[in-house]
Write a structure and sequence with these properties.
Blueprint lengths: L1 H25 L7 H16 L1 H4 L20 H13 L4 H4 L1 H19 L4 H12 L2 H6 L6 H20 L5 H14 L5 H21 L3 H29 L17 H13 L5 H11 L1 H4 L4 H21 L3 H5 L4 H5 L3 H16 L16 H7 L4 H8 L8
């Protein structure tokens, strides 16, 4: 028992240290990174100092000006400008707290989400692992938009999984997933592509479980599509009105096949992009739990992760974005989006292999609304859980 408490205290201290480090770093410097400075911070300053020029299509400062990528969403610049208005002046050191706040929310949300399904010790372990990802910590104080994108995509993905894995229909989870899927389209251009991945996975799930009832499919789908459109349509209409494109690179959409990107991609993900050992550990867990991960509900979360990697892979290999993949400017930031979901999935999969161990399962999960938590709460042995879950986790809606 004493070792167990020391283990929990150690994990909590690691998380507190990482949060303290990121929050402190975010207030010690202004925005310095070029992309963050020329895109998000610059647009926020234009909104603060010359808001009329920001929406004047004839102005050189229209949506920040040509150098600030006018076609980029400006949700974050609006929030940053709002902070400037509250302060009465531009303070980039203070506005850095906005990004460290996203880091803190992501860490807290990860722990709460894991506790819906697995015990406290395992939840703290995987939350601590997430908090120590070097690239994630860096984005907590670098003022890039990738961390907010990661947070909102993670919330959308986990609530979609929560809806899929529930024993009873929970439309609220689907609505929340739809809201945050709509929000990611306001963060970065890639948000639209990520939303397509989530839509596709939901379609696969609804079609597989209710393929005989079109009315049931439509009824479920509207709770996701409706909230999504509320947030997506204003930005889409604005882009149409001002004639803004979704492409980040001028010229042809497809520029041929660039296979050299593939090796470079793996080198960046597994070696140079500060994910420490997590990509290799994740693949190892998938290999060890291969029979489990291909079953519902895990397969849908895995499909989200594979879908994101595949979508970015198409961009890297066939479009002008291959240049940015080769020079190392986008791969790490893009793959950061799926790191929390991969840790969440690994936590669920690995818990089943150790669920009968008294040290790691001394507490039952908080939620009893999912098959995972129901089995844990009933105190079943590892063999019993395996037998039950091997028959699938489908439900009647």
């Amino acid at each position: 028992m004493r070792i167990y408490l020391l283990f929990l205290i150690l994990l909590i201290l690691i998380i507190i240290f990482e949060i303290g480090f990121v929050v402190l770093e975010s207030t010690l410097r202004p925005v310095m990174q070029f992309d963050a400075l020329s895109n998000w911070a610059w647009k926020a300053k234009v909104l603060f100092y010359q808001p009329d020029e920001f929406f004047n299509k004839t102005s050189e400062l229209f949506l920040g000006g040509d150098g600030a990528h006018p076609n980029y969403p400006f949700f974050l610049p609006m929030i940053m400008a709002g902070i400037y208005y509250l302060l009465g002046n531009v303070n980039d050191a203070f506005v850095g707290l906005l990004f460290s706040l996203h880091f803190v929310i992501l860490i807290v949300f990860m722990y709460i989400s894991l506790r819906w399904f697995i015990p406290r010790s395992m939840s703290l372990l995987y939350t601590a692992l997430l908090s120590t990802i070097p690239l994630l910590s860096y984005h907590g104080f670098s003022s890039y938009a990738d961390l907010p994108l990661t947070l909102y995509f993670t919330i959308a993905g986990i609530y979609l999984f929560k809806y899929i894995s529930a024993t009873q229909s929970r439309k609220r989870d689907l609505v929340i997933a739809g809201v945050f899927t709509g929000l990611i389209t306001w963060i970065k251009l890639e948000g639209l592509m990520l939303s397509v991945v989530l839509f596709t996975v939901l379609i696969l799930y609804v079609w597989r479980t209710n393929y005989r009832s079109l009315a049931s499919i439509g009824k479920q789908y509207v709770f996701f599509v409706g909230p999504f459109l509320i947030f997506f349509l204003p930005w889409f209409v604005l882009k149409l009105y001002f004639g803004l494109s979704y492409s980040n690179v001028p010229g042809a959409l497809f520029t041929g096949f660039h296979p050299e990107v593939v090796i470079n991609f793996f080198q960046q993900v597994f070696i140079s992009n500060s994910f420490h050992l997590w990509p290799g550990i994740f693949l190892l867990i998938l290999f060890l739990r291969a029979r489990r991960v291909v079953r519902a509900p895990y397969i849908y979360l895995l499909l989200v992760i594979i879908g994101v990697v595949g979508a970015y892979g198409i961009l890297y290999v066939f479009t002008p974005s291959y240049e940015f993949a080769l020079d190392g400017t986008v791969v790490g930031r893009n793959m950061l989006t799926i790191v929390p979901l991969s840790i969440f999935l690994a936590g669920l999969l690995f818990f089943h292999s150790l669920s009968s161990h008294p040290f790691l399962s001394s507490r039952t999960p908080l939620s009893s609304r999912t098959p995972l938590s129901s089995l844990a709460k009933q105190g079943m042995t590892k063999g019993e859980m395996s037998s039950r879950t091997s028959r699938g986790m489908t439900r009647e809606r």
